[in-house]
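call fold(seq) -> tokens
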Amino acid sequence: MGKAWLQSRYDKAGPGGSGADYVNCPLDRTQYDGFVDALLAGEKTEFKEFEGTPYFDGCLPIEVMASRGRETLRHGPMKPVGLTNAHQPTIKPYAVVQLRQDNALGTLFNVVGFQTKLKYGEQTRIFRMIPGLERAEFARLGGLHRNTFLNSPRVLDPLLRLKAMPRLRFAGQITGCEGYVESAAIGLIAGRMAAAERLGQAASRPPATTAIGALMNHITGGHLETIDLGPRSFQPMNINFGLFPPIAEPRVDAEGKRLRGPERGIARKRALSARAERDLAAWLLSENQSGQTLARTG
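ret:
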């Protein structure tokens, strides 16, 4: 810790955090260049013949990112923005490696964004080049997980059913959503639609103006309606405001003051969120009324 320091980016406290939730290891220009050179030259495990699948762009190995340009890492997982070196406050780090605490005892830390296909010996050698980690003990070395998902816009219908065999419905991460909450949400909706069909109800999707509906729209066709770069263009997606249908952006605040810059972006996100909340409430009310009608008539 004579080289590293504790801080969250922009001092932002996460759930249960304090605003100083990451160990930050700074690199100057020379150290960064040496680290990138080592990543590029390091010995890597190769794909087996049956593993000839493309990388998922959201979880690229650190050495693959380095191969896409020398500045890629410092604009990705090693970006130095929002951080101030506690040991040299006036000197901006050229790049920063962050470690996140992984257990309650504070004895395990995970290197953020460092998925890798480097061989184990290379990992220990290269990662000890990071200032502050020269004598690190590695409890578990990195690897590459396979993210298996359907090309859902082509093979699933709007109700998450397999077009070629509609009696099969898919749910969760395999449909092409990324994130625990997103995967659980798509599973919940798939379960609701399966139950509705079993009860003789018309299965309905949440409105595309809601978070779950926007994600479903991406999974089941919205992606290809806006950009079709071929069969490999579809990628798993976390929920984000870019998936929501456009909305008229607020120009002024509640007091009539003109919104500018970041304030305008914040106002837009609040408007999208408010619309989503209204539309989701209306959809749930409609779903409940449909269920009550079926119960009375059935």
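Residues 66 and 73 are 6 Å apart (CA to CA).
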